[in-house]
Amino acid sequence: MSIQKIDVKYTAVATAENGRDGRVASDDGKLDVVVNPPKEMGGSGAGTNPEQLFAAGYSACFQGALGVVARKENADITGSTVTAKVGIGQNEAGGFGLEVVITAAIPNVDAATAQSLVEKAHQVCPYSNATRGNIKVEVSAA
């Protein structure tokens, strides 16, 4: 697989201190959060964690891609939501890996249209394009 070429319009910058048990902040100060491992992974669970941040980013990005597709298809996605579930666990090589389940609820279209919109959004979404072929990602309409 070749590396995609893009015309960069914006670059986000964030810096972490103390990894999974510290703080992460964006260079513009709009994001500044304490991160801690979840209790399920032996941490305090007091702050957010990288998987929650990834789920938040992926769900927001996918919702945006859904909007792009809906406009092209003249579909009404008013009131729609996108939920991303990001799992983390040990992989076969002894490191860690992620998997994602994306579910979109689109109340103003029929089930077949909703599923078609979700599949097309999965082709447009930058997060989907970045993860495709690297991790397990399931997408569906609720």
What are the main properties of this structure?
N-terminal domain of TfIIb, three-stranded antiparallel beta sheet, 27% strand, three-stranded mixed beta sheet, single chain, 6 strands, 3 helices, GMP Synthetase, Chain A, domain 3, 142 residues, alpha+beta
Q: What topology does this entry show?
A:
Layout: E1 14-17, E2 22-26, E3 32-35, H1 50-73, E4 81-90, E5 96-105, H2 111-124, H3 126-131, E6 136-141
Parallel strand pairs: 5-6
Antiparallel strand pairs: 1-2, 2-3, 4-5
Helix pairs in contact: 1-2
Number of separate domains: 2
Mean pLDDT: 96
Biggest pleated-sheet summary: 3 strands, antiparallel
Rg over CA atoms, rounded to whole Å, is 17 Å
Please identify the top-level CATH class of the largest domain: Alpha Beta
Give the overall shape.
globular
CATH topology of the largest domain: GMP Synthetase, Chain A, domain 3
Give me the CATH superfamily of the largest domain.
K homology (KH) domain
Poorly predicted runs are none
Give me the number of helical elements: 3
Distance between the termini: 32 Å
Strand order of the largest sheet: 1-2-3
What percent of residues adopt helix (DSSP H or I)? 25-40%
Which class best fits the helix and strand makeup? alpha+beta
CATH architecture of the largest domain: 2-Layer Sandwich
Question: Element order, helices and strands?
Answer: EEEHEEHHE
- Strand elements, count: 6
Beta-strand content: 25-35%
